[in-house]
Amino acid sequence: MSPDLAAAEAAFDPRDFRRSLGLYATGVAVVTTVAPGGTRVGLTINSFASVSLDPPLILWSLAKTSPRLGLFAGADHFAVNILAKDQEEMCQRFARPGEDRFAGLETAPGAGGAPLLPGCLAQLECARDQVVEGGDHLILIGRVLRHRRGGGLDALVFCNGAFTGIPTERH
Asked: One digit per residue, pLDDT tens: the chain, 171 residues?
Protein backbone atom coordinates (compact mmCIF):
# COMPACT_ATOMS: atom_id res chain seq x y z
CA MET A 1 0.00 0.00 0.00
CA SER A 2 1.35 3.41 -0.91
CA PRO A 3 2.08 5.88 1.92
CA ASP A 4 -0.51 8.30 0.48
CA LEU A 5 -3.23 5.62 0.47
CA ALA A 6 -2.33 4.48 4.00
CA ALA A 7 -2.50 8.06 5.29
CA ALA A 8 -5.86 8.65 3.58
CA GLU A 9 -7.31 5.45 5.09
CA ALA A 10 -6.04 6.36 8.56
CA ALA A 11 -7.66 9.81 8.37
CA PHE A 12 -10.97 8.55 6.92
CA ASP A 13 -14.01 9.43 9.06
CA PRO A 14 -17.07 7.30 8.12
CA ARG A 15 -19.55 9.76 9.72
CA ASP A 16 -18.06 12.65 7.78
CA PHE A 17 -18.18 10.52 4.60
CA ARG A 18 -21.89 9.82 5.24
CA ARG A 19 -22.54 13.58 5.62
CA SER A 20 -20.79 14.20 2.29
CA LEU A 21 -22.91 11.54 0.58
CA GLY A 22 -26.02 13.12 2.11
CA LEU A 23 -25.44 16.22 0.00
CA TYR A 24 -26.30 14.24 -3.13
CA ALA A 25 -30.04 14.48 -3.76
CA THR A 26 -31.69 11.10 -4.33
CA GLY A 27 -35.15 9.94 -5.23
CA VAL A 28 -37.03 7.82 -2.72
CA ALA A 29 -38.66 4.47 -3.44
CA VAL A 30 -40.15 1.51 -1.62
CA VAL A 31 -38.99 -1.93 -2.74
CA THR A 32 -41.47 -4.75 -2.17
CA THR A 33 -41.51 -8.53 -2.51
CA VAL A 34 -43.33 -11.57 -1.19
CA ALA A 35 -41.54 -13.84 1.26
CA PRO A 36 -41.95 -17.61 1.28
CA GLY A 37 -45.34 -18.28 2.84
CA GLY A 38 -46.89 -15.19 1.24
CA THR A 39 -45.87 -12.46 3.69
CA ARG A 40 -45.53 -9.07 1.99
CA VAL A 41 -42.20 -7.35 2.64
CA GLY A 42 -41.20 -3.77 1.87
CA LEU A 43 -38.61 -1.18 2.76
CA THR A 44 -37.73 2.40 1.88
CA ILE A 45 -34.61 2.93 -0.23
CA ASN A 46 -32.73 5.77 -1.85
CA SER A 47 -29.98 3.62 -3.35
CA PHE A 48 -31.62 3.08 -6.73
CA ALA A 49 -30.17 3.52 -10.23
CA SER A 50 -30.74 2.48 -13.81
CA VAL A 51 -28.11 0.13 -15.23
CA SER A 52 -29.09 -0.69 -18.80
CA LEU A 53 -31.84 -0.07 -21.36
CA ASP A 54 -31.05 -3.20 -23.37
CA PRO A 55 -31.67 -5.39 -21.50
CA PRO A 56 -33.70 -3.23 -19.09
CA LEU A 57 -31.82 -3.48 -15.78
CA ILE A 58 -31.95 -1.48 -12.54
CA LEU A 59 -30.11 -1.81 -9.24
CA TRP A 60 -30.56 -1.00 -5.60
CA SER A 61 -28.52 -1.89 -2.55
CA LEU A 62 -29.30 -3.24 0.89
CA ALA A 63 -27.09 -3.29 3.99
CA LYS A 64 -25.85 -6.73 4.96
CA THR A 65 -27.12 -5.96 8.48
CA SER A 66 -30.73 -5.53 7.30
CA PRO A 67 -33.14 -8.02 8.88
CA ARG A 68 -34.79 -8.31 5.44
CA LEU A 69 -31.57 -9.13 3.58
CA GLY A 70 -32.28 -12.83 3.12
CA LEU A 71 -35.85 -12.18 1.98
CA PHE A 72 -34.80 -9.78 -0.78
CA ALA A 73 -31.59 -11.56 -1.79
CA GLY A 74 -33.55 -14.79 -2.18
CA ALA A 75 -36.63 -13.31 -3.87
CA ASP A 76 -37.23 -14.18 -7.51
CA HIS A 77 -39.18 -10.92 -8.07
CA PHE A 78 -39.43 -7.48 -6.53
CA ALA A 79 -41.09 -4.17 -7.34
CA VAL A 80 -39.61 -0.68 -7.10
CA ASN A 81 -42.34 1.84 -6.20
CA ILE A 82 -41.00 5.35 -6.92
CA LEU A 83 -42.61 7.79 -4.49
CA ALA A 84 -44.32 11.08 -5.29
CA LYS A 85 -43.72 14.29 -3.32
CA ASP A 86 -46.92 13.78 -1.32
CA GLN A 87 -45.91 10.26 -0.19
CA GLU A 88 -43.56 11.17 2.65
CA GLU A 89 -45.85 9.23 5.04
CA MET A 90 -45.47 6.14 2.81
CA CYS A 91 -41.70 6.61 2.93
CA GLN A 92 -41.74 6.82 6.74
CA ARG A 93 -44.12 3.83 7.05
CA PHE A 94 -41.71 1.54 5.19
CA ALA A 95 -38.64 2.94 6.97
CA ARG A 96 -39.96 2.13 10.48
CA PRO A 97 -39.00 -1.21 12.02
CA GLY A 98 -41.23 -3.82 13.57
CA GLU A 99 -44.75 -3.21 12.33
CA ASP A 100 -47.04 -4.42 9.56
CA ARG A 101 -46.08 -1.83 6.99
CA PHE A 102 -48.89 -2.91 4.68
CA ALA A 103 -51.71 -2.53 7.25
CA GLY A 104 -54.58 -0.60 5.68
CA LEU A 105 -52.91 -0.28 2.26
CA GLU A 106 -54.66 -1.47 -0.88
CA THR A 107 -51.93 -3.03 -3.00
CA ALA A 108 -52.05 -4.78 -6.35
CA PRO A 109 -49.97 -7.85 -7.16
CA GLY A 110 -47.07 -7.25 -9.55
CA ALA A 111 -44.74 -9.76 -11.19
CA GLY A 112 -44.18 -12.72 -8.88
CA GLY A 113 -46.76 -11.26 -6.49
CA ALA A 114 -44.57 -8.29 -5.45
CA PRO A 115 -46.93 -5.65 -4.00
CA LEU A 116 -47.52 -2.50 -6.04
CA LEU A 117 -48.25 0.48 -3.79
CA PRO A 118 -50.96 3.07 -4.52
CA GLY A 119 -50.25 6.62 -5.72
CA CYS A 120 -46.65 6.14 -6.86
CA LEU A 121 -44.99 8.16 -9.63
CA ALA A 122 -43.74 4.99 -11.28
CA GLN A 123 -43.49 1.27 -10.64
CA LEU A 124 -40.97 -1.21 -11.97
CA GLU A 125 -41.77 -4.92 -11.75
CA CYS A 126 -38.51 -6.87 -11.78
CA ALA A 127 -37.13 -10.39 -11.87
CA ARG A 128 -33.92 -10.83 -9.87
CA ASP A 129 -31.01 -10.88 -12.32
CA GLN A 130 -27.94 -10.75 -10.06
CA VAL A 131 -26.92 -10.22 -6.46
CA VAL A 132 -23.43 -8.73 -6.13
CA GLU A 133 -21.28 -8.12 -3.05
CA GLY A 134 -20.52 -4.45 -2.53
CA GLY A 135 -18.64 -3.79 0.72
CA ASP A 136 -21.14 -3.72 3.60
CA HIS A 137 -24.08 -3.96 1.16
CA LEU A 138 -25.51 -6.37 -1.38
CA ILE A 139 -26.32 -4.87 -4.77
CA LEU A 140 -29.51 -6.32 -6.21
CA ILE A 141 -29.86 -6.08 -9.97
CA GLY A 142 -33.29 -6.59 -11.44
CA ARG A 143 -34.49 -7.14 -14.99
CA VAL A 144 -37.50 -4.89 -15.55
CA LEU A 145 -40.40 -6.97 -16.85
CA ARG A 146 -43.09 -4.26 -16.75
CA HIS A 147 -43.23 -0.61 -15.78
CA ARG A 148 -45.87 2.06 -15.46
CA ARG A 149 -46.07 5.75 -14.64
CA GLY A 150 -48.71 7.25 -12.36
CA GLY A 151 -50.39 10.60 -12.77
CA GLY A 152 -48.12 12.67 -10.53
CA LEU A 153 -45.33 14.96 -11.60
CA ASP A 154 -43.34 15.76 -8.45
CA ALA A 155 -40.86 13.21 -7.09
CA LEU A 156 -40.11 12.78 -3.39
CA VAL A 157 -36.43 13.65 -2.96
CA PHE A 158 -34.12 13.32 0.03
CA CYS A 159 -31.10 15.60 0.44
CA ASN A 160 -29.02 16.75 3.39
CA GLY A 161 -31.35 15.06 5.88
CA ALA A 162 -34.61 16.53 4.56
CA PHE A 163 -37.38 15.75 2.06
CA THR A 164 -38.33 17.94 -0.85
CA GLY A 165 -40.17 17.59 -4.15
CA ILE A 166 -38.67 17.94 -7.60
CA PRO A 167 -40.86 18.44 -10.69
CA THR A 168 -40.34 15.58 -13.13
CA GLU A 169 -42.21 16.99 -16.12
CA ARG A 170 -40.07 18.12 -19.04
CA HIS A 171 -40.62 21.65 -20.24
From this structure: 676 666 666 677 888 877 776 666 678 999 999 998 899 999 999 889 999 999 999 999 999 999 999 999 999 999 999 999 999 999 999 998 877 899 999 999 999 999 999 999 999 999 999 999 999 999 999 999 999 998 777 888 887 777 776 655 543
Stated pTM of the model? 0.86
Give the domain ranges of the chain. 29-159
Q: 29-159 architecture in CATH?
A: Roll (2.30)
User: What gap in Å lies between CA 120 and CA 72, rounded to an integer?
Assistant: 21
